[in-house]
Predict the structure.
Amino acid sequence: GAVVSQHPSRVICKSGTSVKIECRSLDFQATTMFWYRQFPKKSLMLMATSNEGSKATYEQGVEKDKFLINHASLTLSTLTVTSAHPEDSSFYICSARDRNTDTQYFGPGTRLTVL
Amino acid sequence: KQEVTQIPAALSVPEGENLVLNCSFTDSAIYNLQWFRQDPGKGLTSLLLIQSSQREQTSGRLNASLDKSSGRSTLYIAASQPGDSATYLCAVPPWGNTPLVFGKGTRLSVIA
């Protein structure tokens, strides 16, 4: 089946630094990618929708200047957590929708820990 | 606004049993419906996608049905195994490239 990769899988950083997470669709093209975050034992929370070549659409309550999203190509989207704080520690998951089949595939997630 | 509900929230069954997970949605104007599984600390794995024009899809021991008019979908798992233990999520996109609306999931435990 189609694969979505995320890098890194885990990252630990100091408070105040920025962290970039990459999301790639490996064998399909995705005009639309989604970024989610998930706290332990909680449901997925959609953060933003990104379309290739245009600005991301952020969900209410998600700061666009703190969570920078770039969807540079049909196979790559990046999420940068700027000036990270301990409360940003979470599991971040990206998802990509196959433009040909409409199936949405999810990456394995990135666990961010901010000290 | 589309809302997705999954029942039961948790289910524990002995190995070998057949089981049914339920999903209901409030707005029948859906583009498709997707079932996922999530293992603890992992991302989501797509299991089955049913287009709005279809009534069911099968993959191995899994069978998903869709009844748009009643706003329901079921995921049938045959001959359950301990490896099936996970949280199962159903999700619908209202249309095209809109974000999936997820249910809260059913946490399944299959006891050996």
Q: What stands out?
A: The radius of gyration of chain B is 13 Å. Chain B has a mean pLDDT of 92. Residues 89 and 96 of chain B are 20 Å apart (CA to CA).
